[in-house]
UniProtKB/TrEMBL annotation:
Gene3D superfamilies per record: 3.30.300.30, N-terminal domain of ligase-like
Record's protein name: Acetyl-coenzyme A synthetase
Domain (AMP-dependent synthetase/ligase): residue spans on this chain: 90-480
Cofactor(s), names only, from the UniProt record: Mg(2+)
Coiled coil: none
Gene (name only): acs
């Protein structure tokens, strides 16, 4: 984030006190903070007991061997049972679990009884294909009910899912399937996006042809009805398998630390890391935060989180949190502007959505398109709004409340990460007086701090690095196959704190005079584009994998709509690139990155340059490149080898 926007954030003085009527009926009451402060572990044990355990736990936390944490370690439960069967057994089988809208306008409403039946059948299908406890299953699907069913079926068997976002490329699938050594891939022929069917199975075919894998079968959901190639020995239609599957499936308990999923996310190196989450602690915090932060009243609310299940937000706040709580929710397959720019607001009106959770980048693009689009719809059912993924600028926050929330709804700005598994910092609706642009306070049960580089608390009205000071139930348990990288990335920076190592989040933060937290963006080489994490190194490696590229540097430059945008500076190999113009090379490389990683990583700009600014020790000066990309006066260049480089780059990027 640029310095100017940090300034405008920190000078924000508007305050929004809770409405007393909302507070009186709110799920979260101020005593939650006191209870959690008085007995933190007891508080978490109480939250965990809101779940159904096949073997009750007696030990809440084992932190004797940090950074390895064991939560509720001697207990056992079945995650899918907690999200499904128990609601049916409690008499809520007829409650709608999912109101699904397909992009072309088809829709399905699925009750808890129906969803439970489908998941039992799918669990039988997977078991029949040899999937059992600990096996990895890759899921590459559009946002259709089968995505949720597949995840829960894997969970029901004690196996591990690795959901790959449908926008990722064949190459990204290959890397993930190989890293996790997946046994089965579940995909679809295609899905709907922007009025067209995009092929998914084709990407899986390409990925598996290139992969050294152990994938035995590919299970294919029919959705796009596009033509697909078929390998009789490997491929199976989901609907055919489901048609003959038994509806009986008894959920078995698995130990609380049984792995639930791997989700790949960008780090500071070129290789995405497989973040590992386990069962009992993860589900405890996903369910508790979903209840308390979103003020969920499962009997009456209609909840909608717009995230895809390919991201952590879709795992925790589309699948596990809402379903563990027996919520009724909306699931929408397509893009917000298809077939018209008011599609989201039409869906809110149609289903009378009361709780809505989305990302600042979406809010900013609606602001740009104009308030008349949402205002043409009846949004009066909304009573709570949430934001996630990146800092929300105060103007977008206020617009969200005024235009979408009718000037009355509380807004919860929720800070968390793939690694934290669930919400960590957020206002509690009905309790907290909110400040536009600040995520504010750790939720009850969580403790965070802002430290300087030496590990000292920065004090009020100062900035530094955000850390989590105590282990929490939904914390990541590791990086798949790489315990050293896990310890090094998150736990080594502040390893010597008196009560064990502190979790380093990689975000900069400012504490205001009240002690509220204002997130300031990443402090490492991770960019945040439209709320999605991308690593500069990952895109640089994609660029240099192209034969015409000699060297590449990538930065995240601030962007009005997407928060940050990918900007690349590339030096071409003079021989290989002889016959292409700079404009052609730039186009080619943008497309190449999209093909290597996925469309979300496509650079906004690729500048062809002859040199890159480096320090005397040979490090690329990204800060300087960012200044150039954002059109700012460039800062201190005294450590540069050759200051003329900067002028050259400036000229070329104009
Ligand atoms: C950023 C998404 C400010 C942050 C759940 C974090 C935020 C990264 C917020 C994690 C927020 C997420 N305010 N920044 N409310 N929420 N971030 O893993 O930089 O996709 O480290 O998880 O997004 O992104 P991830």
């Amino acid at each position: 984030m640029s310095t100017t926007s940090i300034d405008s954030l920190l000078h924000e003085i508007r305050r929004f006190a809770p409405d007393p009527a909302f507070s009186a009926a709110a799920v979260a009451q101020p005593e939650l903070y006191d209870r959690a402060r008085a007995d933190r572990l007891g508080f978490w044990a109480e939250q965990a007991r809101a779940l159904d355990w096949t073997t009750p736990f007696t030990e809440t936390l084992d932190w004797s061997n940090p950074p390895v944490a064991r939560w509720f370690g001697d207990g056992a439960l079945n995650v899918a049972y907690n999200c499904l069967d128990r609601h049916v057994e409690a008499g809520n089988g007829d409650r709608v679990a999912i109101h699904w809208e397909g992009e072309p306008g088809d829709s399905r409403s699925i009750t808890y009884a129906e969803l439970t039946r489908e998941v039992k059948k799918a669990a039988n299908v997977l078991a029949g294909l040899g999937v059992g406890q600990g096996d990895r299953v890759a899921i590459y699907l559009p946002l259709i009910p089968e995505a949720v069913i597949a995840m829960l079926a894997v969970a029901r068997l004690g196996a591990i899912h690795s959901v790959i976002f449908g926008g990722f490329s064949a190459e990204s699938i290959r890397a993930r399937v190989e890293d996790a050594d997946a046994k089965l891939v579940i995909t679809a022929d295609g899905g709907w996006r922007k009025g067209k069917v995009f092929p998914l199975k084709h990407a899986v075919d390409t990925a598996l042809a290139a992969a050294e894998t152990s994938v035995e079968h590919v299970l294919v959901v029919r959705r796009g009805e596009n033509d697909v190639e078929w390998d009789d020995a490997r491929d199976l239609w989901w609907h055919e398998q489901m048609a003959s599957a038994s509806e009986e499936h008894e959920a078995q308990g698995f130990e609380a630390e049984n792995p639930l999923f791997i989700l790949y996310t960008s780090g500071t190196t070129g290789k995405p890391k497989g973040i590992l989450h386990t069962s009992g602690g993860y589900l405890t915090q996903a369910a508790y935060t979903h209840r308390a932060v979103f003020d969920l009243k499962p009997e009456t609310d209609v909840y909608w989180c717009t995230a895809d299940v390919g991201w952590i937000t879709g795992h925790s706040y589309v699948v596990y949190g809402p379903l563990a709580n027996g919520a009724t929710q909306v699931l929408y397959e397509g893009t917000p502007e298809t077939p018209h720019p008011g599609r989201w607001w039409e869906i809110i009106e149609k289903y009378k959505v009361s709780i809505f959770y989305t990302a600042p980048t979406a809010i900013r693009s609606f602001m740009k398109a104009g308030r008349e689009i949402p205002l043409a719809h009846d949004l009066s059912s909304l009573r709570l709004l949430g934001s996630v993924g990146e800092p929300i600028n105060p103007e977008a926050w206020v617009w969200y409340r005024e235009i979408i929330g009718g000037g009355t709804t509380p807004i919860v700005d929720t800070w968390w990460q793939t690694e934290t598994g669930a919400i960590m910092i957020s206002a509690l609706p009905g309790v907290t007086t909110t400040k536009p642009g600040s995520a504010q306070v750790p939720i009850p049960g969580i403790s965070v701090d802002v430290l300087d580089e030496d590990g000292s608390h920065v004090g009020l009205d100062s900035g530094g690095l955000l850390v989590v000071t105590e282990p929490w139930p939904s914390m990541l348990r590791g990086i798949w196959g790489d315990p050293e990288r896990f310890a090094e990335t998150y736990w080594s920076k502040f390893a010597d704190a008196p009560n064990g190592p502190l979790y380093f989040a990689g975000d900069g933060a400012h504490l205001d005079v009240d002690g509220d937290v204002w997130l300031l963006g990443r402090v490492d080489d991770v960019m945040n584009v439209s709320g999605h994490r991308l690593s500069t190194m990952e895109i640089e490696s994609a660029l240099v994998s192209h034969p015409i590229v000699a060297e590449a540097a990538v930065v995240g430059a601030s962007d009005e709509t997407t928060g940050q945008a990918v900007v690349a500076y590339v030096i071409l190999r003079s021989k290989k690139a002889k016959s292409v113009t700079a404009a052609e090379a730039s186009q080619m490389l943008r497309a190449h990155v999209a093909e290597q990683i996925g469309a979300i990583a496509r650079p906004r700009e690729v500048f062809i340059v002859t040199e890159l600014p480096k320090t005397r020790s040979g490090k690329i000066m990204r800060r300087l490149l960012r200044d150039i990309a954002e059109g700012r006066e460039i800062g201190d260049t005294t450590t540069l080898t050759d200051t003329t480089v900067v002028t050259v780059i400036r000229e070329t990027s104009r």
